[in-house]
Amino acid sequence: MADKPVRADKASAVAELTDDFRNSSATVLTEYRGLTVKQLTELRRSLGSDTKYAVSKNTLAKRAATDAGIEGLDTLFTGPTALAFISGDPVEAAKGLRAFAKANPVLVIKGGVFEGKAITAADVNKIADLESREVLLAKLAGAMKGNLTKAAGLFQAPLSQVARLAAALQEKREKDGPAEA
């Protein structure tokens, strides 16, 4: 009978991890062996409020990933594993993890999940190389504003030409005097 509460705890842990996998825009698996509690706390803070960084047993995380419909992660669940469940911008979180791993080489990025598909550690680094969503939106807005300004200039050009033509005709009429009908 002592096993039932433990199994219930495991079932609830798997259910929570499954929800985390399903509700995250991306998930990054890391090996944290050698990091102190202070360093783990620092890592959690650096990732921000949109990322949940959780240490998990490999068997439970593997089962949760399978329950969430994610395949291809089984080989990554070796050694001490922590998962970064990202609900915000995956680019910012990937940059934060990579920067922390550079400063603390004992943190190893193993791979993860992006848009429901398994990715490698190299893919995580490629995501970190992208510009953030805000920067991309700002560039898009700038490009659109530039094109709208050009369009407005093109639309105004014929109007100003018509106005100049009307002014020239008016001037000519005034010089020539009233036309006889």
From TrEMBL:
Domain of life of the native organism: Bacteria
Keyword terms: Ribonucleoprotein, Ribosomal protein, RNA-binding, rRNA-binding
SUPFAM superfamilies: Ribosomal protein L10-like
RNA-binding in keyword set: yes
One Gene Ontology cellular component: ribosome
PROSITE patterns in the record: RIBOSOMAL_L10
A Pfam family annotated for this UniProt entry: Ribosomal_L10
NCBIfam families, sorted: PRK00099.1-1
Subunit structure, interactors included: Part of the ribosomal stalk of the 50S ribosomal subunit. The N-terminus interacts with L11 and the large rRNA to form the base of the stalk. The C-terminus forms an elongated spine to which L12 dimers bind in a sequential fashion forming a multimeric L10(L12)X complex.
Family (UniProt): Belongs to the universal ribosomal protein uL10 family.
HAMAP family: Ribosomal_uL10
Function: Forms part of the ribosomal stalk, playing a central role in the interaction of the ribosome with GTP-bound translation factors.
Protein name: Large ribosomal subunit protein uL10
Gene: rplJ
